[in-house]
Write the structure tokens for this entry.
Amino acid sequence: MSDIRPDIEIRNLYKIFGADPGAHIEAVKAGLSKTDLNRKHGHVLGLQDINLTLPGGQISVIMGLSGSGKSTLIRHINGLIAPTAGEILYDGEDVCRMSEAELRRFRRKRTAMVFQKFALLPHRTVLENTLYGLDIQRVPRAEAEPIARRWIDRVGLKGFESHYPAQLSGGMQQRVGLARALANDADILLMDEAFSALDPLIRVDMQKVLLELQEELRKTVVFITHDLDEALRLGDKIAILRDGALEQVGTGQEIVLNPANDYVAAFVREVNRSRVIHAGTVARVPEPGESLPEASYPARLVLEKVARRMTRDGHRAARVVDRNGDTQGVIDLSAILEAMVNPATADSETA
Amino acid sequence: MASSCWGLPELICRFPEVDATAMRHARRAIDTGFRDLVREFSDVIDAATAPLQVFLNMLENTFVNTPWIIVFAVLLGVVWAGARSVRVVAGAALALLVIGWVGLWEDTMITLAMVTVSTLLAVALGLPVGIFTARSDRVQAVVNPTLDVMQTLPSFVYLIPVVVIFGIGKVPGLIAVVIYAIPPMIRLTNLGIRLVDREVIEAADAFGSSDRQKLWGVQLPLALPTIMAGVNQTIMMALAMVVIASMVGVGGLGKNVLQAINNQFFTVGFLNGFALVAIAIIFDRTSQAFGKRLQKHREAGHE
């Protein structure tokens, strides 16, 4: 699975909902606001001028509150919703220009989707649900069943093959949803608030399952969520969406350390920064001639883990090293502590 | 007469009616025109209804001429296959034995054949119409008012054109029964498909299902409980209509009821009526239990 997967390129994407979207697209492009469009013309602006590259083989998280257009956006990628203007390029093809038949082929071969409310087929067993995508592709059962059984096994549902969805808990149902999507062996995995309906503990569990699988599969995952913690835990790249427009795009650390505006800042305020910021970010360049500490930790390690290891090992300071073991800088406990405390909230809370 | 007009002008006071002569002419023109049209195409109509006649006769003869014990066993077998319930089978056995004992076996068999054929026909026609109705709002805008008319138009009224077109006999009766019994089949098929969870439909789309794969793999199976309710209703309505259809020459229990009305035979009327009720209950329990059994995946477990 080491072949490089293409990026998904979203270019100048607009979506207007209403009776005659085409009539208003030029006005919106010229700057007609969402409120005015709704009040004067009775149309709803779903997405405006989305430009986003979703890197192949990585997890991209699109984050936003309800009504931000994130579910609309993900449905454009497999053509469940057609845009009013713009294009989505994948592997040299524009998804938005595909015919019905091409789109069906694209959905069968290249994408798979996991849904918030699982959307399993209630009249099919776990095995049959997992087989669904392959059935649609008319893969013979003899060939498809071992594949399905393998994925059921991988998501931890061995022994439940002949259960019906109604007999399973929410977390187990979503494992079926995941197995169904993975059995398709598509490049792109679209996950629409896939874990949002699950209990917190099970959600974390499923996040781990996804990360483990991704470690090996390296699919192009597009993950939708309204939960910033989830976004930071999963996303190699995070895009924040608000009222149909992108507010900020970057890595988790970039967004937490440099929120682009007040909206994003308000979002990241409550985040556990020690789980996001890397040791390399906090490390300072040593003074010339300074004696370097003995201990060393990888630069990619998040502060929480560095702090835990340093206290465990009894170090007050340590070197931060890159993959080759070369020293990038030095870090000490007080610098870690300072970075972990959010400057904005720390000052405003007087207690 | 003018005194009851409260001093209003004639036009507002008395309803302006079409001239009686004009009405008479129009009526005569439509009636004769219709009759002539039917006469013109009588060969075509006969040819078209011949297979129905053959099928109906065949089934009726089978039901009537086979020794009762065999029919009895087969019927109970069908009930068992559908309901899988000893109670329903026992109830059906008891009802059929009583029916035979009071001398209504043959008439019941005729009615049974009639109801079977009309239900099969209503399902065979209603299901595709229901599917089309579910797929297009425009079709639904035409079909729904049509069904409203079919359901509210007194059945005696549409017996008239049926008789004009097809004459008197079993087949016209069959057609009248089908017209009467088909609306719930169409309505509930339409409703069942439209009520299928949108998320599941979206999932089917997201995996690249074709329309046909979606229909057979997702929509129809998930609409099945509602569709089965439609079948059940269709059977019940067919049983109700069989009595009225006896006015155009359908035999069986309905004919007995009609004679009982004409001659004020209280006991005969009720006996035949109860025989119909017994059949209805057997059909109802069997088809409902069958529908429920198809939904085994909905039972048990969480939620």
